Amino acid sequence: MEAEQSSPPPPPSAGDDCLVFKVNGERFEVPEIDPSTTLLEFLRSKTRFKSVKLGCGEGGCGACVVLLSKYDTVNKEVENFTVSSCLTLLCSINGCSVTTSEGLGNSKDGFHPIHQRFAGFHASQCGFCTPGMCMSLFSALANAEKTNQPQASPGFSKLTVSEAEKAIAGNLCRCTGYRPIADACKSFAADVDMEDLGINSFWNKGDKKEIRLSRLPSYNPKDHTCPYTEELEDEYKSTRLLNSEKVSWYSPVTIKGLQNLLHPDMVENGARIKLVVGNTGNGYYKETDIYGKYIDLRYIPELSMFRKHNSGIELGAALTISKVILYLKEKSKANEYSSGDLLFTKIADHMEKVASGFIRNSASLGGHKHETITMEEFLSRPPLEPKDVLLSVHVPFHEPTRIDGSVHTNSKLFFDTYRAAPRPLGNALPYLNAAFLADISCDRNGSLVNNIRLAFGAYGTKHATRARKIEEYLTGKILSLRVLDEAIKLVKGAVVSEEGTSYAAYRSSLAVGVLFEFLNSFSSVASAISAGSSEELSGSVLEGTAKSINDKISQTGRPPLLSSAKQVIQSSRDYYPVGEPMPKFGAAIQASGEAMYVDDIPSPPNCLHGAFICSTRPVARVKSISFKSNQPTDVISVKDIPREGENIGCMAMFGSEPLFADDLTRFAGDLIGFVVAESQKNANLAAKTALVEYDTEGLDPPILTVEEAVERSSFFDVPPYLYPQEVGDFSKGMAEADHKILSAKIKLGSQYYFYMETQTALAIPDEDNCMVVYSSIQCPEFAHRVIARCLGVPDHNVRVLTRRVGGGFWWKGTKSNAVATACALAAHKLRRPVRIYLDRKTDMIIAGGRHPMKITYSVGFKSDGKITALHLDILINAGVTADISPIMRVT
Amino acid sequence: MEAEQSSPPPPPSAGDDCLVFKVNGERFEVPEIDPSTTLLEFLRSKTRFKSVKLGCGEGGCGACVVLLSKYDTVNKEVENFTVSSCLTLLCSINGCSVTTSEGLGNSKDGFHPIHQRFAGFHASQCGFCTPGMCMSLFSALANAEKTNQPQASPGFSKLTVSEAEKAIAGNLCRCTGYRPIADACKSFAADVDMEDLGINSFWNKGDKKEIRLSRLPSYNPKDHTCPYTEELEDEYKSTRLLNSEKVSWYSPVTIKGLQNLLHPDMVENGARIKLVVGNTGNGYYKETDIYGKYIDLRYIPELSMFRKHNSGIELGAALTISKVILYLKEKSKANEYSSGDLLFTKIADHMEKVASGFIRNSASLGGHKHETITMEEFLSRPPLEPKDVLLSVHVPFHEPTRIDGSVHTNSKLFFDTYRAAPRPLGNALPYLNAAFLADISCDRNGSLVNNIRLAFGAYGTKHATRARKIEEYLTGKILSLRVLDEAIKLVKGAVVSEEGTSYAAYRSSLAVGVLFEFLNSFSSVASAISAGSSEELSGSVLEGTAKSINDKISQTGRPPLLSSAKQVIQSSRDYYPVGEPMPKFGAAIQASGEAMYVDDIPSPPNCLHGAFICSTRPVARVKSISFKSNQPTDVISVKDIPREGENIGCMAMFGSEPLFADDLTRFAGDLIGFVVAESQKNANLAAKTALVEYDTEGLDPPILTVEEAVERSSFFDVPPYLYPQEVGDFSKGMAEADHKILSAKIKLGSQYYFYMETQTALAIPDEDNCMVVYSSIQCPEFAHRVIARCLGVPDHNVRVLTRRVGGGFWWKGTKSNAVATACALAAHKLRRPVRIYLDRKTDMIIAGGRHPMKITYSVGFKSDGKITALHLDILINAGVTADISPIMRVT
Prior knowledge:
Helix content of chain A: 25-40%
CATH superfamily of the domain at 598-701 and 758-846 in chain A: Aldehyde oxidase/xanthine dehydrogenase, molybdopterin binding domain
CATH topology of the domain at 598-701 and 758-846 in chain A: Aldehyde Oxidoreductase, domain 4
Domain FAD-binding PCMH-type (chains A, B): 242-423
Radius of gyration of chain A: 31 Å
CATH class of the domain at 598-701 and 758-846 in chain A: Alpha Beta
Oligomer: homodimer
Cofactor (chains A, B): Mo-molybdopterin; FAD; [2Fe-2S] cluster
Shape of chain A: globular
GO molecular function (chains A, B): 2 iron, 2 sulfur cluster binding; electron transfer activity; FAD binding; indole-3-acetaldehyde oxidase activity; iron ion binding
Protein name (chains A, B): indole-3-acetaldehyde oxidase
Largest sheet of chain A: 7 strands, mixed
CATH architecture of the domain at 598-701 and 758-846 in chain A: 2-Layer Sandwich
Main location (chains A, B): plastid
Largest interface: A-B, 19 and 19 residues
Strand content of chain A: 15-25%
Distance between the termini of chain A: 84 Å
């Protein structure tokens, strides 16, 4: 081993300096590329495979999921797994085969049954998330066939209904409510109950099972294996390693080789070094740093090994989380270790809740510093320096505590982990992580804590911590209500978020809850035993009890994901075919990813890309905008609106809105500039790092609440047709009421309209002062007029095309106008095509935020709940002005 | 001088290895480029200035004319001149400013009065030639202001009507008939007669001159000078020379430097060298050779000098023809030389008939080997080796022949040149050139030939020749009818075209004609004198006579180009505004070049370019198609038509036509393959150099004439609705006729439908098996159906857009179908956009050739010409099949 470590990296073989991979069977050779390029960027800009969508850019939505096939030289087989292409660096797929949804099937070569069933089950609405969903399901189906499960009946996969449902965990959808998607996925499962599948275009209500099955687009696991992998086996049987000076990407195969690359002498001009495994950390850190050298750690055997020691197991730091989970589960199943199997299962279970499958498939164990399995000592040290390399993680075996050298009678180890996050599965940052390890003896006196370790993390501190005070308090105690009560008080003092952490009180109460749940189980066991069983408390009984406790926790702590429901829809033939479950036109090409959204339209030659600079100050003068190093091609602002034109960015309910801030910014988030650059990446970077000088001298402070707006009489004009109408006699209604709420208030905060596809537009100047604008807008007729007025050209000079909207929810009816108009204005000035695809953060600033509202109401109602009088006053806050609009007055 | 020659070329100054120039004020820096790239290719593919159209690619049509502005370091002023951008190599415009029609004005910044007047005079029909026309006129207007002519009245140029008309000589138009174009040009002229200008949208019939003038879009020479030249003066006051290894382009400044570059040691791997001045020769030779080194000869003083010796004048070989003309004219005006001024004027006049102004502006004297002024000895030598450099041309002074040391009494030199070509001015290859120099003495006895030189060229031999036998015969003879007759017989024997020369007999008879015209003048003079004048035949009288002869030739040989006509159009108000001279919508943007034709649509990313391989054999099997070195991306043929599709390329009057030859080629020119490559240049080259193996074993010979078709009963089916109808009683009509033609025949050959824009299409695959095709087609509905049937997709999957047609003449109604369908088929197969812009030669093969016809007719008519009976049988020959269709039978 040592000899291997000290040997120099082998000389690169022919072609090692050229990145080679396949996409849907097409071979790509890339001799030069910016190593920070992601697989998503490459696919979307250099290939015709646009099914790979940019949703969040942080591995959080699954819209960009692709299948990666890689030849595993150790197991001598092709591995197929999903990854987020938005995080995967292109160089890290050297020697791989990438499959996108178009690669599974398409309108020309025929659709894959996944596509057909997504269409038939109405599982694709806006369609933006669908190709990623399809890839997640495909990967699950392909890998299910490799398991030892018995062969399913013809037309079905080995996959279970539960696995089918979990297959798409982490793939977000904003339209369907998931039910039809889950149905499409479950329809492949070996154990599916056809009755349980919802409305679809394949069969009629009441059709027999055989008929239903025959109507499903046929699936045969053998016919629908992973494509494009045969050549991979031929070509890549010996691992192909990228070592390229041009690309600044290196793949050392020994620790020594790695050390050489990290040696200061080898680093030119102090260039920053990036150590890469899956690059999933970028989804969280979103770094914009520029690195001079990328080192891929995946080919150093020490970093990718599993090893069993007497004291525990050692896991290479570059192992993916998925592989660690697999390994831990296999080990615990195999019962290889005298103890600790419970612990390994629990750790594996916990890890399955971290991020999504397509993230765990490439995220490394070591790279994920917030994992609870890492050692306390390690965690409490400052973060690793960029050049430090974490080699492996050691997980010790645990044996019951020995007192005076011998194990306590009936002593048993209990271990459990907890994770509370907005979603039980799939990508979501946790509010709290916790892991508890306890050595407990139970007898008729109760449960005695021989030893206990309590770790809490992710609740708003720099790193996870041990709650030592509570551990000390509990050790040697018999668990009683009083003891539990005291422990809980201590938790409240121990789990305290840092200032500025959201939901701090909630996190703290979560800590209380999980500790109570863990400890209370033992109390219950003890009570049960003391309640009358005369059985000997043999070790085996306790073991069984422990298992049941853990199972119970599984059942209660994690409600089964599997959803089951019956959907009964009464369809009348009166308005046939209205109400019939007809497949949506274009649903199949949405699933295959061939459906063309605005950002899928290839950039015309000479196209520029835009990004917005938003004001960070409400009610301020913008004195100047400057750029440090990322000088954009141009900055468009209110000054660039043609003399014949108008500063207009939207025609809304309460009148038109300006495109750009003029003398004063109206609110934080107001548009003050539109930078254009040669790529979206550069435009985003320029906008993000722009230096804006503000001046607020002599200006009134902004109005930030509804109350301030009322106080300063800053109101919208409400158009007459929106004036409230009184219905009935309010006083009479109130007089007749059994119960009255004379006055009460509801305050609604602002809200971000989350759609999978961010705001986007592409403006192409045409001959004779004409402008063609592709916009992801729900109301192209609005953009048409706004653009014509802004540019000061006749309406017929503007053509606005909405091909598809990747989710709208009305904010693509209003906010899209400004986005489209800014592109048109830039294209008009520069006489070049200009496009934009907003990053999620800017989208949240610009398009996010429905006005916060305050509702004051009075209600009178009868004892049976019938309303006799209702009066609502709705106040909408819009930053500097507010609208007092008693929209409704009902009796 | 010698010192200068031997000094090494100066070390390149900073930036000398980077090509720098401006286009419409935009600066371009091009560090690397294929040196064979033309200015046209660059403008059309790398800039947004698409006004520069590719018409013929040989400097023959003027559609690509641009204005070049160059700082002349000798005269210290900016020179402005037009060039054909299709021939001009990009590297040769280093340090120049290019102005295209968009640069003169446009829809955004306002149109130039040239654009406005072209629109108002209806001078732009299809619009494809218009931007080039505008540039030619603009150059003439700009340069007119530099002359010493008196200032014109306000609103007018110094340009004369005659010059205005000549300004566009060489710019071809196929739509307008030139009248409106000439009107637009003349409207600027100082001496224009407003009454002479035709119908236009500016004024009404009967408006007074002042009103007319006020209605013309205003022109002020001072406001409309050459744009984009000020910076040129600042930046390029010292000549900027391109010397770049990357580009393989060198600009030596001394003979020695040139020799160094030509030295075998300096030429890597025997790379071929190209000596460049204007590259106009490529228009004729159309070379496809690849050169390893380009040497620009324009900066060597010796090659660009004018020098007067005692024996004559010497002209640097790299001087442009335009400069030589200017020099010769100036010299003859200045009367600097004791004799020979006549000769210089004549040579200058002759040179003005060679090619077009925009060619003469860059074509070099030396480079044009077919010039008649070059020496006989030089001409009879084999062509120059690529590395030989012609330094200069010496034009000797000529004095009357001395006999025994003294000049013959009344002896006078006469010189004239002749050029017969399809067009008197503008680019057209001559049928014959001739130059005659005679020393004649005239007295009452007649005209005595003391000495004579007769040169003929361009009639179908390798080089121009002296007709020595005729010279010998004529010398010492008094010109008489008998002598003339004998001389003419000798010409017939001397001017004999080589085998295969077109119009051989015509060329020979032209030679007879011009010699007769030259010699007969002297006979006439002599006759006139002998007829009675008692005047002394003083030298001055003879001189006057000589002048009048030459003038006479001018008048008779060259009809004045200036056209003058009155156009009276009766417009009725009954159908107002029908018949009103309203400006055509889009005419101004056609003039400014902003109008978008199919080939002006920027190539979508990943676009491929196609080129047709046409069969060279009628009725043959294609065994194989292979490529030597220019391997294209793919070759589409009949095999690529989808199973659901159909081999269809056109739906014509007599049924549909296949797209590709299937088992057998139908005729020479039948489509057998469609190569696609990454650029149009590569596709054309691959198609041109493809090796096609044919097999004709066991096949019937092709039918090549109408007679053969009839003999072999090979007929088209004529659809019933086209059956001829008999009108009246033919026998009765014949019986009543005073005169009868019982049977006669007319044979019409095939014909090429010349449109300025060749056939072109762009096919872009869209989602869901859809195809968007931009085609320069007159009937998009035909292409729509043909493409859908060929691809085997529903009609609604195909969208065909005709934005503009750059001239059609019906062949863009039929032949465009196959062009659009081939692109669509390739795009369908390869799932990439595919476009084509046919080179003129392939266009002539594919789209050219209306079927040759044979008409047999019988007519009976009265003495007053009234037809009493008419019977026509029209036979159309279509290669392998013929159509016997007695279309019309009229009485």
